[in-house]
């Protein structure tokens, strides 16, 4: 007798998200698409939102914070042009979803979250799913993490009115940073590159992130 195991509806939803929200909007980076087809976003959202995990918008994760829209995460990851040997700093761990993706795309990920509760939850989820090359710190990410600097890539998931100087200083030569910059209601998702010590900036998208709260 053969038993047919029905396909997991969330796995199907994940594939559909990659096709309809990422590929159809022009995202081509194969490593980013592959990692987004792999990481179970449903494990990073609170239980009542599990069924909505692959919808085309942010979702609440508690403490007044949100898990970013999949498309914005993909744009961020693609712009960072990560290679498997890269060391990455992430500001605003939140649910840990983007942290998991970074973990697959780079060699080492340091992530900072200011809410102790969210940091603890993200640590537990990442640990449970087997993401071993990540370290989640609790603190103010606007100061970066000087003990492990410089970073090949920095991903900031909370909106700043201006780019914190410490983060610019902690970029390596050839380094990339993606950060939402602007007003609380609307920001530009900026890509900052450091080449020969000089910084250049490109606007990737318009976006709306929760604020970077810094003391
Ligand atoms: N990438 C996350 C996004 C979470 S929202 C995800 O996909 O789940 C942004 C997060 O930034 C929030 O959890 C918020 O608490 C955090 N945050 C805001 N200001 C911060 C700061 N100064 N340092 C560290 N984290 C900060």
Strand content: 25-35%
Distance between the termini: 64 Å
* Mean pLDDT over all positions: 97
Quaternary organization = single chain
Choose one word for the global shape: globular
Strand order of the largest sheet: 5-4-3-6-7-8-9
Number of helices: 6
- Under the CATH scheme, the architecture is 3-Layer(aba) Sandwich
Question: Bound compounds, please?
Answer: S-adenosyl-L-homocysteine
What structural class is derived from the secondary structure elements?
alpha/beta
Q: How many domain regions?
A: 1
What is the CA-based Rg, rounded? 17 Å
Main beta sheet strand tally, sense and closure? 7 strands, mixed
**Portion of residues in helices?**
25-40%
Low-confidence stretches: none
Q: What is the number of E strands? A: 9
CATH class: Alpha Beta
CATH evolutionary superfamily: Vaccinia Virus protein VP39
What string gives the helices and strands in order? Answer: HHEEHEHEHEEHEEE
């Amino acid at each position: 007798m053969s038993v047919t195991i029905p396909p997991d509806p969330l796995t199907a939803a994940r594939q559909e998200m990659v096709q309809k929200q990422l590929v159809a909007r022009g995202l081509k980076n194969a490593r980013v698409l592959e990692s987004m087809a792999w990481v179970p976003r449903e494990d990073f959202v609170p239980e009542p939102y599990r069924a909505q995990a692959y919808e085309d918008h942010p979702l609440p994760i508690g403490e007044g914070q949100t898990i970013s829209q999949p498309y914005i995460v993909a744009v961020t990851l693609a712009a960072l042009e990560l290679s498997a040997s890269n060391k990455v700093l992430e500001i605003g761990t939140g649910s840990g979803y983007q942290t998991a993706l970074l973990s697959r795309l780079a060699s080492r990920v340091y992530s900072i979250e200011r809410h102790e509760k969210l940091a603890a939850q993200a640590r537990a989820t990442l640990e449970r799913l087997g993401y071993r090359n990540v370290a989640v710190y609790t603190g103010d990410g606007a100061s970066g993490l000087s003990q492990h600097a410089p970073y090949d890539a920095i991903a900031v998931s909370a909106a700043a009115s201006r780019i914190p100087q410490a983060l610019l200083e902690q970029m390596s030569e050839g380094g990339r940073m993606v950060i939402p910059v602007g007003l609380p209601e609307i920001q530009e998702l900026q890509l900052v590159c450091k080449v020969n010590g000089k910084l250049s900036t490109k606007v990737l998208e318009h976006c709306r992130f929760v604020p970077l709260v810094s003391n």
